[in-house]
Protein: Stress-activated protein kinase JNK
Organism: Salmo trutta
Amino acid sequence: MNRNKREKEFYSLDVGDSTFTVLKRYQNLRPIGSGAQGIVCSAYDHNLERNVAIKKLSRPFQNQTHAKRAYRELVLMKCVNHKNIIGLLNVFTPQKTLEEFQDVYIVMELMDANLCQVIQMELDHERLSYLLYQMLCGIKHLHAAGIIHRDLKPSNIVVKSDCTLKILDFGLARTAATGLLMTPYVVTRYYRAPEVILGMGYQANVDVWSIGCIMAEMVRGSVLFPGTDHIDQWNKVIEQLGTPSQEFLMKLNQSVRTYVENRPRYAGFTFEKLFPDVLFPADSEHNKLKASQARDLLSKMLVIDASKRISVSEALQHPYINVWYDPTEVEAPPPLITDKQLDEREHTVEEWKDLIYMEVQDWEERTKNGVIRGQPASLGAAVSSSSQQYPSVSSSSVNDVSTNPTLASDTDSSLETASNTDPLGCCR
Ligand code: AMP
């Protein structure tokens, strides 16, 4: 496309400290969140005639960490298509050549709030179990593609008021070092499993721990293991769950084991003490049963030794969760990941710049030719999901056709209110 024509397609506006330069089809930009990679805005897409979310990645190739994450996210978002993983609608850069290349804009389905805002709400068993079911479905789908997340947290999970839920990111690359003896970068570690904190080998149920921590927080209304740094994170775990057995300690490498053995010994608390009845709605026999099922699930997910922790498939079969079981959601065919060396890649800044630019161009080519994941581009790759199967808040209350819970009623739009009043300040 010639330079002038391309220039005319974009316009710029200031959002906080940043300038967004976006295609003119996206109007009415408003900041809705920010993460490690930059600011996220909501916008109206005049082509798709729907609201979308736009994330700006500023110079994503500037260092190894940013570049690997941005590249991995682009590649995986293009491949994965599941109702509980955020869907990609568009990718573009306003710059015209590789030499000028600076920023990438990722356009996604727009959701109402992240899970940090939902944690503040009083959830009944129906909503709680439905949200957990969807987290497990999304994670199972990633596992089926060989992606183990390892860094699931409430700020990277988004929901709509119809109680649908999507995971926003793909977690840590297999090669990412995370252990106790690492430099303490400022990142949220509250939800990281013991095997990640302690730098041990891990398997897929590493993500069950994080879902357990998130469930606990939804029940308690506060973070379960609020470690002040990466070392304190371990203290918080053992203070509540107790010092793990000798059998577990033998699996640690020598220097980590020495550290762990030198901590004071804790007996820990029973799950009845950690999650007493008062934390759950217990006004009916049904609710009492559900509370004990919820506690049972927590006690099977929050197990320090991964070899004794429940698996994702077992969690999906647990009585608290399996009421929602739908094989089309749980057993959806796994996505094929095109780049087999995704996690192993090590490149210079210039090489990353080249690779990321190529990914953006590849998307532009594919959409130009009208095909994304075998669908016509005009429909958008991810238009598939929830809205078709899960009636919106208003339609469900009118038609009453849904057996799925919602997060807000017509009169109670607490989710939208939460995201509007605190666009950038939620948990990280
Ligand atoms: P991220 O940069 O992906 O970590 O996102 C930062 C924050 O922006 C999240 O915690 C959400 O609050 C918000 N956000 C990101 N993507 C979306 C989306 N597709 N829909 C709604 N909110 C989003």
Residues 125-144 form the longest helix (20 residues). The domain at 113-331 is CATH 1.10.510.10 (Transferase(Phosphotransferase); domain 1). Residues 32-35, 37, 40, 53, 55, 86, 108-111, 114, 155-156, 158, 168-169, 426 surround adenosine monophosphate (CB under 6 Å). Confidence is low (pLDDT under 50) at residues 374-402, 409-414, 416-428.
